């Protein structure tokens, strides 16, 4: 079981001071020295023998953590149900069993739950996870330190019973059956039932008539719970994982994982809903997918309230049986109470002209808010099923938040990224009866059914030769039967609150804000820097000189351009939100949404990494939220989670699953680690764990099958694996599993160490480009002769970043030498390469600006100012028209000829933007003092 799944808090340990923080100049050298001072492994022996040294999570004494000042990512939340975050620690500084305490601004101790997220190889703590209780107003900031945590006044309690699991926060209680249809069979606030029969609903459509004619059959499937696992049981936070499938009418499909989160003292709970699309998209079609609760209604129809939040804090504020606007006035006190969501005065006190005719006032028992595009939602209501709908209003971007109940209690509900993930919908049914029903639709039944079919007929590309010709013209790597969505996934986040009464406008607005952006505590930039988090390849934003300011301006411009493009070009939708486009079409002045491999980026050249490093150095909320959405998308939609290609991702294309290149470079755990460690998100942890044995997929799919120069059949003892785009992803997964102490951590440790050793032992190390990997030994065979196959793609999918982390913590001089040789020689002159290798390199100078960060890495490790100067020269003057040089004017023009007026920067491409961003950030961190 990985650390993030443990049910116990971290045990007490000795307190201690902070470790010394490294300077920018010696950042990587200091990290290496920490390992070299007390080496863990003898590299003269096999990894299996050396690995035993790291078997114990507490193998090395440590001094203890210092204090960490935490702040909210956005403003202090007005509505607060609890929060969680991760904090990094320097190698060797914090014992693996350290306990922590939390203090709010002002000095009050705050209840805290802590657990290990990751360990350094010596057993000290690398990342710790923490949860903060709800139920009290959030402070402006907090201080995390060593110590015994305060106990919550009302701890969350989890009880596992035969047939169900009960969670009690001290304010509300939930019952989670271990089988059947209901995920949550009941939600009580004290003794008052607030909601029942919480279940998943899926509408399946059997046909998809393209002309809109014909009979369309739709069936309703409900959740079928197969397993329930308690992952955390308090005292501050409870986490329960529920797994199953949607089932009904002879159909069982769409496997789901739903995590329920509940916090001590809180009146709400969260659901993180993930499902796998286990269909080829040709037969059955998703016509609706949602989460549904029944809501007992105890108040009179005129005391039953409906709330639906639009943009901002504006909301539809209505009663099931309206008492305002009538021909006869029931009295001001009655009207004001109903509008305010309060109980009306007793009916006997009303004007008798109203009280005697109240049965003649229609009861509007059903409401629907449908957000079918990012640009508009509609609200309608009706009295009951079988009667006509009455239009209510329209708006642009709804919050995805509502409430059904009355003064005696009710249920508030919300879906994060509601309009961004359209088509979505909120439905209220049966509010005129004793039991209403609320459905939060992740896919609206009012929208056309989900269509994931491939978008063209193949264009006659039946052979590899024809497919390579197609690649030459549209940049699409097509192959029959490969453009399938089978195995892709999607995750959605929902929040429910069991309220004692109808919320005030202020409370409902605060709830909506928390649904839109889950309250998130973050570490100061300096803490991330001092601990060498994520390889330490960043420094804080610095505009202290004109040269630095110019680079910072460029970084801001490029990020802002993507924010603007996302909104103006409407990069939204259930399967699309979170991704960006790959390239632009300068003739049409649009992004190339319909041109083969130039459409959706699917992480090509690592925009994920660019965004996360941009956040680490700035702490900016807008960058975090952009990166968060990208992580949610690229880790789910662009990767296969079931089927024969599970563990591989799909190359960039018109549809996220369309391209036939299924590769490790897209599924890589290097892109997921940031969000998991910064937020402790368990779903992202699942995605990382899925990849622990993803190298086995190379047996069923050869990524180089179309371009092999010689016959090759995948062999479990001789799998051809690239040292760049393939191994970087595998290494990221193995490192993550090892440091998280996942189920396969010892196996992953040995594979990581074995491949590092055998890459280093190749005739020309990383320049060898690839090797034959043995699944049984976890090692590469040593090639008898050097092969000089340098690819411009090898280092731009996380290899730089993962190697930086590996060299922080693993003392293998041969591996470091092989990597530094690659870093030095990629941008070297042919003469320099030939002088060292006896052979020229054939990289054609592609992505030279991107690779200046490799030169910078080598310059920092070897303290080489000449190499640093060359790196800056290559970065500022890359020598190609498509890369951003010091002379490139980054400015937009307004274009009115497109469908909507847009801002246009003709030189933008995601490949260049991501790699410029990473090179700028990492060069500043590694060799900033050498910037001309």
UniProtKB/TrEMBL annotation:
Ranges for the region named Disordered are 1-26
Residue intervals of the PcRGLX/YetA-like central beta-sandwich domain? 156-511
Where the record annotates domain PcRGLX/YetA-like N-terminal RIFT barrel, the positions are 67-146
InterPro entries per the UniProt record, alphabetical: PcRGLX/YetA-like, PcRGLX/YetA_2nd, PcRGLX/YetA_3rd, PcRGLX_1st, TAT_signal
Q: Name one Pfam family in it.
A: PcRGLX_1st
Question: Could you tell me what this protein is called?
Answer: Tat pathway signal sequence domain protein
| Domain PcRGLX/YetA-like C-terminal alpha/alpha toroid intervals | 519-931
């Amino acid at each position: 079981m990985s650390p993030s799944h443990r049910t116990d808090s971290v045990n007490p340990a000795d307190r201690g001071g902070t470790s010394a923080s490294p300077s920018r100049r010696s950042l990587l050298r200091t990290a290496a020295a920490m390992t070299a001072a007390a080496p863990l492994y003898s590299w003269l022996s096999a990894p299996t023998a050396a690995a035993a040294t790291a078997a114990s999570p507490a193998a090395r004494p440590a001094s203890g953590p210092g204090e960490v000042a935490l702040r909210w990512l956005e403003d202090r939340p007005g509505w607060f149900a609890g929060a969680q975050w991760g904090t990094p620690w320097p190698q060797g500084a914090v014992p693996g069993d350290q306990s922590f305490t939390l203090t709010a601004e002002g000095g009050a101790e705050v209840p805290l739950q802590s657990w290990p997220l990751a360990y350094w190889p010596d057993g000290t703590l690398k990342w710790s996870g923490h949860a903060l209780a709800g139920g009290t107003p959030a402070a402006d900031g907090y201080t995390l330190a060593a110590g015994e945590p305060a106990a919550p006044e009302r701890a969350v309690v989890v009880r596992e019973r035969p047939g169900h699991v009960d969670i009690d926060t001290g304010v509300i209680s939930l019952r989670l059956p271990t089988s059947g249809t209901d995920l949550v069979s009941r939600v009580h606030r004290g003794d008052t039932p607030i909601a029942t029969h919480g279940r998943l609903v899926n509408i399946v459509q059997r046909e998809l008539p393209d002309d809109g004619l014909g009979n369309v059959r739709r069936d309703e499937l409900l959740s079928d719970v197969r397993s329930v696992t308690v992952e955390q049981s308090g005292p501050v936070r409870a986490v329960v994982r529920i797994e199953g499938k949607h089932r009904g009418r002879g159909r069982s499909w769409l496997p789901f994982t739903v995590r329920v989160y509940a916090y001590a003292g809180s009146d709400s709970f969260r659901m993180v809903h993930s499902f796998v699309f286990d269909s080829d998209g040709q037969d059955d079609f998703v016509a609706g997918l949602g989460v549904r609760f029944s809501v007992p209604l105890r108040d009179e129809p005129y005391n039953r309230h409906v709330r639906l939040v639009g943009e901002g804090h504006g909301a539809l504020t209505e009663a099931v049986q309206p008492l305002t606007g009538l021909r006869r006035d029931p009295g001001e006190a009655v009207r004001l109470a109903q509008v305010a969501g309060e109980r009306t005065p007793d009916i006997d006190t009303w004007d008798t002209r109203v009280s005697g005719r109240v049965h003649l006032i229609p009861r509007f028992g059903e409401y629907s808010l449908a957000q079918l595009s990012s640009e508009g939602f509609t609200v309608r209501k009706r009295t009951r099923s079988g009667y006509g709908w009455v239009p209510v209003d329209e708006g642009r971007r709804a919050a995805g938040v509502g409430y059904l109940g009355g003064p005696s209690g009710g249920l508030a509900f919300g879906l994060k990224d509601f309009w961004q993930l359209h088509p979505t919908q909120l439905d209220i049914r049966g509010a005129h009866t004793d039991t209403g029903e609320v459905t939060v639709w992740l896919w609206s039944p009012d929208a056309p059914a989900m269509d994931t079919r491939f978008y063209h007929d193949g264009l006659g590309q039946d052979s590899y030769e024809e497919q390579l010709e197609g690649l030459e013209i549209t940049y699409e790597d097509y192959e029959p039967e490969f453009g399938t969505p089978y195995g892709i996934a999607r995750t959605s986040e929902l929040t429910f609150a069991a309220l004692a009464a109808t919320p005030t406008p202020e409370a409902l607005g605060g709830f909506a804000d928390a649904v839109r952006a889950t309250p998130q505590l973050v570490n100061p930039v300096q803490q991330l820097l001092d601990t060498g988090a994520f390889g330490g390849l960043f420094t804080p934003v610095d505009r202290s000189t004109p040269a630095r300011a110019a680079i910072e301006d460029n970084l801001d411009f490029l990020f802002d351009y993507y924010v603007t493009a996302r909104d103006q070009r409407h990069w939204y939708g259930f399967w699309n939100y979170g991704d960006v486009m790959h390239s632009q079409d300068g003739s049409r002045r649009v992004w190339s949404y319909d041109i083969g491999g130039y459409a959706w980026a699917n992480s090509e050249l690592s925009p994920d990494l660019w965004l996360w490093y941009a956040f680490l150095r700035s702490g900016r909320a807008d960058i975090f939220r952009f990166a968060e959405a990208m992580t949610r998308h690229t880790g789910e939609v662009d990767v296969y989670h079931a089927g024969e290609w599970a563990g591989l991702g799909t190359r960039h294309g018109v549809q996220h699953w369309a391209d036939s290149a299924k590769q490790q470079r897209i599924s890589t755990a290097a892109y997921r680690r940031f969000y998991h460690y910064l937020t402790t998100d368990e779903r992202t942890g699942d995605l990382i764990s899925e990849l622990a044995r993803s190298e086995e997929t190379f047996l069923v799919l050869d990524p180089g099958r179309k371009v092999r120069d010689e016959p090759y059949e995948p062999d479990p003892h001789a799998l051809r694996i690239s040292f760049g785009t393939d191994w970087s992803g595998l290494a990221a997964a193995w490192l993550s599993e090892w440091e998280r102490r996942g189920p396969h951590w010892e196996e992953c440790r040995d594979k990581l160490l074995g491949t590092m050793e055998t890459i280093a032992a190749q005739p020309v190390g990383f320049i060898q480009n690839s090797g034959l990997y043995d699944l049984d030994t976890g090692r590469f065979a040593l090639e008898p002769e050097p092969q000089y196959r340098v690819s411009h793609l090898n280092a731009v999918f996380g290899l730089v970043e993962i190697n930086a982390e590996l060299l922080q913590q693993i003392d293998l001089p041969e591996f470091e030498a092989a990597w530094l040789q690659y870093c030095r020689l990629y941008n070297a002159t042919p003469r320099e390469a030939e002088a060292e290798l006896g052979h020229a390199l054939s990289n054609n100078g592609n992505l030279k600006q991107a690779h200046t960060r490799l030169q910078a890495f080598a310059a920092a490790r070897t303290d080489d100012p000449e190499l640093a100067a060359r790196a800056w020269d290559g970065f500022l003057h890359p020598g190609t028209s498509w890369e951003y040089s010091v002379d490139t004017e980054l400015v937009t023009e307004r274009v009115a000829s497109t469908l909507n007026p847009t801002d246009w920067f003709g030189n933008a491409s995601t490949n260049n933007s991501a790699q410029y961003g990473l090179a700028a950030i990492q060069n500043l961190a590694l060799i900033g003092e050498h910037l001309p």
